[in-house]
Each structure stands twice: as structure tokens, then as C-alpha cells.
Amino acid sequence: MTRSATGGRLPGVNVAVCEPGGSSPSDWLKCELGEDIQFSTADLESYACSRWEPVIFDAMVVAAAVEFADRSCRRSSKGWARRLAIRIPVDDPDRWKKPAVADSLLDALRFVTGDHWSVEFSQREDSSQELTGDRLSLFDPSAAVLAYSEGMDSLAVAGLAKSCLGNDVVRVRLGGRTSARNGNGDPDVSIPYWVRVGRSYESSAMSRGFTFATVSGIAAYLTHASMVIIPESGQGSLGPPLVTVGHAHPDYRNHPEFTNRMERFFRALLGAQITYEFPRLWHTKGETLARYVAIADDELWRTTKSCWKDNRWSSVGGSWHHCGVCAACMLRRVSVHAAGLAEDPEIYVCTDMSAATLQSAVHRDFKHLNGAYREYAIAGVLHMHHLAAMADPGVRGIVRRHALSLRPILRTKVDIEERVVALLEKHADEWRDYRSALKPSSFVNQWIRRN
């Protein structure tokens, strides 16, 4: 029995992944392949069959099962950690049970989600994922894989990478229909991927970091690439662990300490030397956007999605909008301003950041202006402000400890602490400049003065 620090039993769930038509023990939650977990590997197979192995399919099932278990268990209001157990059928159980593989897998999961995990492996009966015959090779081996989302950093860093490596970078994303070359002629592979949970209890999505890192690592292995490019800028990578919220586990989804653990996992599982690189780690999102705009002959950055909220919470007149006030939206707004650019305020639910009250700031047709939206807005504003406060010399000890944890991971001779401090100071400058552009009576400035 796993107990919390106060002696109470941790919430938990036992998940048994079953092959089609299979059954699970009565006290285990059933997760059936083809029903609760669905994804198509045809795109990856089509251009990388020379390295396609059953272990690749199994690794994707592991990532999906982790997400299923994560979303199926509610966290306690008194603490963060849960106890999550998974049983998974794989092609070669002995391979997954090797200490180096099992230990590195659990280390990565525990680090990124903050939960207690246990994973058991059994023999998979269905061998339909073993490929036979030749497949058409769409893309040549690549120099790098870029973990791609719909976000601004992804678009910008993809453009910057192309300026250096040409079309030798494969962009990998979850969702979509097919792999192809996008409108700019860049290799682009999308993996249709669904995890169906009867009722989702967990909204932090910490496990999605593991899923994304797994899929991008697999893509690198299949395309003979030695590098996965993480496009996150410094505020999105280093900021969340420096500024945590309440009793929440630090968000390491885009952090070098997490990807370092994924490197060890892939070395143990596949014998592959795959590295996760952060080319914009020491730059703000605003600097990254400005650099992209300077070399790109397009306005695609305007079409990117930053908001965490979905259609249920951020729709106006039947169409999705950025909420405008979550931490991701606030960082977007500050970054656009820092890059010397401007957006149509109508893309946001919160259209007028200079308004004196949140109520008068949101779109008149918005239907979800409630206490939860207000708390979300306060959290978004304070996250930006508290991250800026980390540049103060009075908290240099916290920054120094964080820098020390990065030193053995980052392959660089630069002074890590100096770089982190410079990043925080730049963020503080951009945040101050953004606030100065708002009216002194803005609800944003009022909230800051009160806190």
C-alpha cells in the first residue's frame, strides 16, 4: 500500500491493456487495443520500414497506455501524487523487463508526472504489427526530427531549422491524417492517435510530455536521425519548474532533465544514441518570433495556436478563440509585443487587456465568464509576474540550484547560471514593457499591485 506523507492512502488505478476481444481482471480497468487505444503507424511504416520492428509498435502502446492511466485517475485535493499500475502485452517481454529498460522507463514517468508508477509486461499474441514486403520510401534519412505542435515556437523553430538544414528535418506531430510534404515542401509526418477514456479526470496532461517525447524519439530512430529538436523557448522550458502552482508537481514536459531521461530510455530499449536538443533554450519566445519573422516571407505565425483551452471553454459565436488570459496566452501576448508585432484582439476571448475589469475586457458574446475563468486569468498573469520576479538577486539561490541541476545534462561549456539569469532578466524586461503599454488602470496592473 502506498501512503502519502500525512498517512492517507494515495488515489490510484490499475489498468490492464488487452488485445482485441481480450478481458481484464475484475479489479483492473480494461483498456482495449483498437477501441480505447487507436493509432495508425502506416505513415511511419511507409517511409521507414527498413527499421520497423515490433518493439516500435509496443513503445507506442506503452505511451498510449500511460496517457490512458493518467487520465483515468483523479488527483486528491490534498496532494499531487497517485499510484498508477499498468499491464501491457508486448512482442518481447524479456526485452522490456531488462533492468536498464524498466528502470529508465519508470524514472522518466515518475519524473515528468510526479506519480508512483509500476509497469508489467506480458506476451502479446497478435503479430499483425510485424511487417512483410517492401514499402515505398517517401523520405531519405534525416538529420533531425522536430517535435511539432500548432504553437508559435514550433512554427518559428521549424523555419529557423530549415534555414540551416534545408529539408533535412522531419516535423512530427500527433493527430492529423497522413504524412506528406507540407505547403513549404518540408517533410511532415502526422501520426493519427487517439486515447479514449470513459471519463477524463486529469487535466494537467503531464503524461503528454512522455507521449510526445516517445513518438518523436521513435521517428528519429526510424529515419536514422540522431537528434530531436525541442522548439520550446526558454520561458516555456525553464519557467514552469521555476514557478510552480500550489501543490502541483513541477512541469518538466519540455525540460532538459526530462529529455535526458528519455535519452537513457531509448539507449536501453533500442540501443540508439538519440539526443534532444533545445536550440532556443536561452532565448525568449519574443526573440524567437522576431528571428523567424526576419527570415520568413509569410504571416503564418498569426495562425498558430497557443491557448490551452478547447472549444468548450473558449468559443465565441460558435468559433474557437484563444482565451487570452491563461499563462500560454499571456506569454504569447508578451512575445508578440516584444517582437514589435501586433495581432487582431478579436482572436482572443479577452479582447481588451487595458480594461479596468476582467468583465469589461472579454468579448461581449462570451458565455463562460465565471469564477473559474477569473481564477485562470489571475493564475496566468501571476505566472508571468512571478517568473519575472525570479530575476531578482534576492532569489538567486533558487536559480543557482536549478542551474546546477542542468550543468551535468547540457553539453556546453557556458556558465549555466549566467545564462538562466540573463533569460530571466530578458523576460522581466519584456513583461515590464508589455505592462507599460497597458493603461495603469488595467485589471492586469491592478492585480499585480495587489500581489
Write a structural description.
The chain is built from 15 helices and 14 strands. With 451 residues, the chain is of the alpha/beta class. The protein has three domains: 12-123, no CATH class; 144-195 and 203-277, Rossmann fold, CATH 3.40.50; 305-450, no CATH class. Helix 2 packs antiparallel against helix 6 (206-222) and helix 5 packs across helix 9. Mean pLDDT is 88; it is low at 1-7, 130-139 and 177-181.
Q: What kind of oligomer do you see? A: single chain
> Helix count, per DSSP?
15
Domains (count): 3
Q: Largest beta sheet, briefly?
A: 6 strands, mixed
Strand content: 5-15%
Radius of gyration: 22 Å
Could you state the order of secondary-structure elements as H and E? EEEHHEHHEEHEEEEHEHHEHEEHHHHHH
- The outline comes out as globular
User: In terms of per-residue confidence, which ranges show pLDDT below 50 for 5 or more consecutive residues?
Assistant: 1-7, 130-139, 177-181
Instruction: Name the structural class.
Output: alpha/beta
How many strand units? 14
Can you give the helix content as a percent range? 40-55%
Termini separation comes to 41 Å
